[in-house]
Design goal:
Blueprint: H1 9-19, H2 24-47, H3 61-67
Helix pairs in contact: 1-2
Length: about 70
Amino acid sequence: MKTMIDLDDDALALAATELGTTTKKDTVNAALQFVAARRRRLEQLLDDPLALGIGPDISDPDTMRQARR
């Protein structure tokens, strides 16, 4: 889809350098994909309590005693 937008040239240049892109279109699309993928990863982490170190064993005294050693 074609959309006319005003872009921050400094931010665009910095993003292009970071993403390794050479055109405005590629930079904007790569940045959008990067943000979307980051959001998906965050949602996966938030949906998995064990990924954040919170799980059923946190209330197990024997497990916690071993973890402190």
